[in-house]
């Protein structure tokens, strides 16, 4: 592995300091701001994990709710018989296996066909879980009783976010990351240069799905009572896509630019207008696609380029004088 550059070392130090500072939030507040921080950490993990696959491939996946629900139900089913860390591992394996099966079956699709299939996947899994619970158990939901509070969930999400970022960074520096960038630019070219396109996409889809499953498992104690409509809520999938697209998918950290403002805005609007949250999601999606097709990070890059062009023009003009 190549050594870290000076710039990468500075970024790593700043990231460590930033994570350490954010981790102190539960020491100062255990109410609204901690709850809001949990939501931000939740969607930061989900959006970054989603970007690991959808960023380089440009495939819009709406399967987030399926993987998230699998993780949540893993904890609901096993919390009384297995330690919580073991359940996190099982959630990762179960979600990863589902992602692998889906990937092998569908990643030859592209465009709207892949979007529709992944949206239907979450609904299919929800219906299957509902049917199994209705016919083989005494109820549809599951109780999740633990001693973990908001601060424990927040710290676990923060630790998972760090793992996701490190994993994404390692993938970007690996042959897999290089292959995915070629695939994202042109799959036909990738095949011609000898890249196993299907294998590369499935691997990244499995990694993304496993992280999303662990996120659902971590959040299960917050629900206390888990049922299919909440665990496999399709709104989760749409919110992740909106936040990731708002921030931008060109950089690993870019989704944060969409997660933080949208989570705060969504929290305020849902508390004041609880019956209009779906309308907000629809309007936000259309506005982002129309006005910010490359997200906030893309807008920043464009502004930097314009600034650089103006600077170059000014220097050339000064040289002529």
Description:
The protein is mostly helical and 321 residues long. The protein has a single domain (6-320), classed as ABC transporter involved in vitamin B12 uptake, BtuC. It has helices at residues 6-22, 25-28, 32-57, 64-78, 84-106, 112-136, 150-173, 175-185, 187-192, 197-223, 228-231, 234-247, 256-272, 277-291, 295-320, and strands spanning 142-143, 225-226. It has a two-stranded antiparallel sheet. The protein is globular.
What radius of gyration results from the CA coordinates? Answer: 21 Å
N-end to C-end Cα span = 49 Å
Class of secondary structure makeup: mainly alpha
Which residues form runs of ≥5 with pLDDT under 50? Answer: none
CATH fold label: ABC transporter involved in vitamin B12 uptake, BtuC
CATH class: Mainly Alpha
Helix content: over 70%
Structurally, the number of domains stands at: 1
The best one-word shape is globular
Binned strand content: under 5%
Lateral strand order in the biggest sheet: 1-2
> How can the largest sheet be summarized?
2 strands, antiparallel
Mean pLDDT metric: 85
Let me know the number of strands.
2
- The CATH architecture term is Orthogonal Bundle
| Assembly of the depicted chains | single chain
Order of helices and strands: HHHHHHEHHHHEHHHHH
Q: Number of DSSP helices? A: 15
């Amino acid at each position: 592995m190549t050594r870290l550059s000076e710039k990468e070392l500075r970024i790593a130090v700043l990231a460590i300091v930033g994570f350490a500072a954010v981790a102190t939030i539960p020491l100062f507040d255990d109410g609204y701001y901690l709850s809001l921080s949990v939501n931000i950490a939740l969607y930061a993990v989900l959006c970054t994990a989603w970007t690991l696959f959808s960023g380089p491939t440009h495939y819009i996946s709406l399967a987030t709710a399926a993987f998230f629900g699998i993780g949540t139900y893993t904890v609901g089913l096993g919390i009384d018989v297995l330690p919580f860390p073991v359940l996190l591992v099982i959630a990762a394996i179960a979600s990863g296996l589902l992602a692998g099966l889906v990937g092998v079956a569908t990643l030859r699709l592209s465009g709207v066909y892949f979007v529709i299939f992944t949206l239907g996947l979450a609904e299919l899994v929800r219906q299957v879980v509902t049917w199994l619970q209705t016919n083989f158990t005494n109820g549809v939901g599951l109780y999740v009783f633990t001693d973990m509070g908001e601060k424990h969930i927040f710290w676990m999400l923060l630790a998972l976010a760090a793992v996701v970022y490190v994993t994404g960074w390692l993938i970007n520096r690996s042959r897999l990351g290089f292959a995915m960038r070629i695939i994202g630019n042109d799959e036909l070219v990738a095949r011609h240069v000898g890249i196993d396109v299907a294998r590369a996409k499935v691997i990244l889809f499995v990694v993304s799905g496993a992280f999303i499953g662990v996120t659902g498992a971590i959040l299960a104690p917050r629900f206390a009572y888990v049922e299919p409509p909440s665990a496999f809520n399709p709104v989760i999938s749409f919110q992740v896509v909106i936040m990731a697209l708002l921030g931008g998918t060109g950089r690993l950290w870019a989704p944060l630019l969409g997660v933080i403002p949208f989570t705060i805005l969504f929290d305020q609007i849902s508390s004041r207008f609880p019956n209009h949250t779906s309308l907000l999601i629809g309007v936000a999606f259309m506005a982002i696609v129309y006005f910010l097709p490359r997200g906030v990070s893309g807008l920043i890059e464009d502004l930097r380029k314009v600034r650089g062009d103006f600077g170059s023009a000014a220097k050339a003009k000064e040289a002529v004088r």
